[in-house]
Predict the 3D structure of the following.
Amino acid sequence: MSPLIHAELAPPPLALPFPETLIRAGLSGFPSPAQDYEGRTLDLNERLIKRPSATFFMQVVGDSMVKFGMQDGDILVVDRSIEPRPGQILAALVDGEVIVKRYEIIGNRPYLCSGNSRYAPIPLGDNECQVWGVVRSVIHEYPV
């Protein structure tokens, strides 16, 4: 993963149009173009960054988390104020390497696990580990 990029302490508001219309991923008909398009907006800072002073961004490098929807080049929104729990995705420093893995308990022992079967779980306790934060969101951009 790349170096840390900190979120601003008070990100400037940036409210963009966010219509009420829901978008379906299947084929169930099309909404009418005449549907009400109210002035509803969405500010991604407000939506994705709950605690600005404890939030930073990281960029994913590699394919170890593809099962969890994290692709090479994706941006992670990481919150260091959240107490890690099993099942959460963590950004951590393990034996001097910054990694992103899922925190799991296997046979009463904590592990950091990949989302790719090519990578073995990392047992905690055997390795030096410093948790940097819990991943709250993944930002994935499509090439255009």
Observations:
- Helices lie at 44-48.
- DSSP finds one helix and ten strands in the chain.
- The first strand starts at residue 5 and ends at 6.
